[in-house]
Amino acid sequence: MSEKRELKFSTIAVHGRKHLDKHELGKPIRSVSTPIFMSSTFAFENADHGARLFAGEEEGYIYTRIGNPTTQALEKEIAYLEGAEAGLAFASGMAAEAHTFLGVCGAGDKIVSGDTIYGGTHALVTTVLPRFGIRTQEVNFCDLGQVEAAVDERTRVLFFETPANPTLGVVDIGAIAEIAHRKNALAIVDNTFATPYLQNPIALGADAVIHSATKYIGGHGDCVAGLLAGKKEFVDRVAHESLHEIGGIISPFNAWLLLRGLKTLPVRMDRHSASAMEVAKYLSFHPKVTWVSYPGLKTHPQHELARRQMRAFSGVIAFEVRGGREAGKRLLDACELCTVAVSLGDVDTLIQHPASMTHHTYSKEALAAAGISEGLIRISVGLEDVDDIIADLRQALSRL
To answer: What is the pLDDT of residue 3?
Structure first.
């Protein structure tokens, strides 16, 4: 018998489902790729079989809003890769956040979130959740004192991104988790920028991880989806008290696209990270750039923390051009290879202006608190040859 040993991440990403899926979805025809079950409903063997499924006495499938074989394969895969007990898939990253918060919080409860987060999340936290009686407060999660002071006896969730969107601030996951657990709250990390390949928040003490799987996990800019991973009891609560009743589910086809994306995640993240480091170094010496924020640079204020928490530093860079918003607009308009578009984690290099695009819902005061200046540019470095990416930025910056 051959000696058993622990598989490496890249191998798990390709073969993980074969070890996870006891149902062996492709068994009848032995398909290597997970089949796509594009069915809204599933037939019962007889009336008693249907009753047993609804009563939870037997495992199986009823209706795709409640569960689907392709979707379940994805949920098991993300749980495995994140080191979690269970996973849950959603129609978008925003759906993942909304369903999670509504699943664990009620009127009078409080969520403390980072003040540097995706603009859609900021709107959810500051505008939508308060309509349900959920109290919210945004603070700087790089300042542990601010976090500690914001937590009260009804705080249920400490939620933050690391690295944070769009400034690339890095939060000490273990320290935040310690505060959360001491206060009987949950530490939930948005791991979108890092992915489970580069960072494992649960291993560092977090209770759960959320992804906008649209980004690096999908990796090709062709599907919108969200993921949650955490303890089974917690994930089941979100499923039964929020997702199944409100219904922000992922389509089986998009679940299959994410399963496909996970197979190449390590290869893509290595390339994104290596190229982003080269681009960040180039920008940091450019006379028309005032500063560059990239966790891989030694000049980044949390560089040492990022080195401890992350395998590599992912593919997103924030930098400020001299001349404010107008200079930023001219830079974007001058790009010939880089695509002016929001989102990130695509094979294409995407460049955008957060203050007027992804973070336009922020007030001037909120932008200032989050460190989002009028001249801030966010670039998601793609899989093109890095020399071509730098050449395009060089010619665009020369026009300022």
So the answer is: 65
Is residue 189 a part of any domain in this protein?
Answer: yes
90 and 215 part of one domain: yes
Does 91 share its domain with 236?
Answer: yes
Shared-domain flag, residues 241 and 278: no
Instruction: At 95, give phi and psi (nearest 5°).
Output: -65, -40
Indicate whether 4 belongs to any domain: no
Task: Retrieve residue 22's tokens.
Answer: 């006891």
Shared domain check, 153 and 55: yes
Instruction: Note whether 136 and 206 are same-domain residues.
Output: yes
Helix (H) or strand (E) holding 11: helix 9-20
172 is written with which tokens? 């000490």
Among residues 223, 248, 263, which one ends one of the domains?
263
Among 21, 52, 65, 263, which one carries the catalytic annotation? 65
- Please report, for residues 13, 96, 112, 137, 385, the alpha-carbon distance to residue 109 in angstroms, rounded to integers and kept in the order given: 37, 19, 10, 11, 49
Number of domains in the chain: 2
215 noted as active-site residue: yes
Q: Between the CA atoms of 331, 336, 337 and 343, what dihedral angle is there, to the nearest 10 degrees?
A: 50
Catalytic annotation, pick one of 17, 156, 215, 271: 215
Q: 256-315 pLDDT, tens per residue?
A: 999 999 999 999 999 999 999 999 999 999 999 999 999 999 999 999 999 999 999 999
- Using alpha carbons, select from 379, 199, 187, 174 the residue that is nearest to residue 289: 379
pTM value is: 0.94
Listed as ranges, residues in the chain with pLDDT below 70 are: 1-4, 17-29
Query: What was the pLDDT predicted at 14?
Result: 86
Residue from 190, 207, 346, 392 carrying the catalytic annotation: 190
The residue segments making up the domain with residue 53 are 9-263
Active-site residue 270, yes or no? no
Output the pLDDT for position 17. Answer: 54
Task: Please tell me the total number of residues recorded for the chain in this structure.
Answer: 400
pLDDT for 173 equals: 99
pLDDT at 28: 63
- Reply yes or no on whether 118 is catalytic: yes
Candidates 118, 197, 216, 362; catalytic one = 118
